[in-house]
Amino acid sequence: MSTPQYSIVVPVYRSEQTLPELCAELIKFFASKNLSFEIVLVNDASPDNTWETVTKIKAEYTAFVTAVNLAKNTGQHHALLCGFQYAKGEFVITIDDDLQFHPNEIEKLIYQQQLTNADLVYGLQMQKQHTYIRNMGSKAVAHIFTNFGSTPGKGSSFRLIKSSVVQKIKDFNQRYIFLDELLAWFATNTQFVGVNHYKREHGKSGYTLFKLALWTLRLIFTYTTLPLRVMTYFGLLAFLICLGFVAYFIYMKVTCGAELGFTALITSIIMSTGLILFSLGIIGEYLSRLFQLQTKRPVFFVKEVL
Fold first, then answer.
1. Residue 153: enclosing H or E segment and its boundaries?
2. What is the Cα Rg of the chain in Å?
3. What is the rounded distance in angstroms from the CA atom of residue 51 to the CA atom of residue 287?
4. Residues 173, 49 within the same domain
5. Which residue, of 75, 109, 150, 173, is most buried by count of CB atoms within 10 Å of its CB?
6. pLDDT per residue over 135-192, tens digit each?
7. For residue 19, what are the contacts with CB-CB under 8 A and spacing of at least 6?
8. Helix or strand or coil: residue 17?
9. pLDDT tens for residues 61-77?
10. Do 132 and 195 share a domain, yes or no?
C-alpha cells in the first residue's frame, strides 16, 4: 500500500454518537478532493460503547481506518501520541471526536500549509463554543506557557503537522505531556488560520473544573520553572518582611527599651517554617517527575489494533 498523503488521528472517548458521522464526513471530504488518506481512531479506554462503534466503523471502511484500543485511560495528548505511531501519511491531522471542528474545515489547514510550507498549522476557532470554564482555563494555560514555556500562546486541537515533526515526538515517553509544547520544540514554521467552531450536539466535555486545574498544575511543573520562580519570590518577600521586623524590634529596643515578646517569636517561627515546607513541596514535585522519568514506565499500553 502506497503512503497516504494525510493521516487523520482522532482520540476517541465517550463518542459513540458522533463517530459514525465524523468518519463519514472525513471520507466524503477527502474523496471529493481526490486526496489519499487514512483515519487512525484511538479509543482512550472509553467506558461506554465507543469501542464497539469503532469496530463497526472499521468493518465498514476497512481500507481507510486503523482502530487502536488502549488498555487504560491516558488522556487526549497521550492518545494522540499513540495514534502518531500508526500514522503513515506525509501530513498528520488531529481533530476532536465531537464534531465541533467539521471535517470540511480541513481544507483551510491544507491551503495554509501549501501556501507557507509550514511545519505546523493550527486551526483557530473564530468564535469558541466551549463552556465559560473551559475558555477561561484555556486562556490561563496559554498565558502561562506564552511567558514561561515555548508555545506561541495560541493553538487548538485542530492541527496539521508535517510527518518530519511527528517522527521526532511520537516516541516521547513522559507521564505528563503537553503536545503543543512538544510541537513548539520542533516546528520551526508555525502558521495559524481561522476556522469555524460549532456547538457540541451530543454528550458533554470530559474537562471538569477540577480536571482542568489538576492538568494545568501538572503541565506547569513538567514544562516550566514557574513554581521555582514563585518560591524564589516568596523567599525574597519573606526575607524583606523579616528584615523589617528585625529593624522594628531593634528600634523599639533602643528607643523604648521594649522586650521581644513571645508572640513575635512564635510568629517568626511559624512564618519561616511554613515557607520552608512550601518550598520543599515544590522541590518534591520536581523530584517526583525526575523519578518517573528514571523508571521509564510506558505511558500507554495498546490492548488491541484492528
1. none
2. 25
3. 37
4. yes
5. 109
6. 566 666 666 656 555 555 677 889 999 999 999 998 777 777 788 888 988 999 999 9
7. 12, 41, 50, 53, 54, 57, 97
8. coil
9. 999 999 999 999 988 88
10. yes
Do the beta carbons of residue 138 and residue 217 sit within 8 Å? Answer: no
Tell me, yes or no, whether 164 and 99 share the same domain: yes
- Torsion angle, CA of 187/188/193/199, rounded to 10 degrees? 20
CATH number for the domain that contains residue 45: 3.90.550.10
Cell of 58: 472499521
d(CA 178, CA 267): 41
State the cell numbers at 179: 503536545
Neighbours of 106 (CB within 10 A): 25
**C-alpha span between 99 and 117 (Å, rounded):** 27
The amino acid occupying position 95 is I
Query: Could you tell me the sign of the dihedral formed by the alpha carbons of 289, 207, 103, 40, in that order?
Result: positive
How far apart are the C-alpha atoms of 116 and 172, rounded to whole Å?
Answer: 27
- The C-alpha cell of 287 is what? 523530584
Give exposure, 8-45, as e/b (b: 16+ Cβ within 10 Å): bbbbbbbbbbbbeebbeebbebbeeeebebbbbbbbbb
Q: Which pTM was predicted? A: 0.74
Angle between helices 262-295 and 226-256 (to 10 degrees): 160
Residues 6+ apart with CB under 8 A from 89: 3, 4, 5, 6, 7, 37, 38, 163
How many H-runs (helices) and E-runs (strands) does the chain carry?
10, 8
Domain shared by 266 and 194, yes or no: no
Cα–Cα distance for residue pair 164/267, rounded to 1 Å = 58
The three cell numbers locating residue 79: 492518545
13 contacts 206 by C-beta, under 8 angstroms: yes
Are 232 and 173 within one domain? no
Residue type, 10: V
Place of cell 515546607: 277
Nearest to 102 by CA among 69, 131, 132, 125: 125
Do 257 and 187 fall within a single domain? no
Cell digits for 195? 476556522
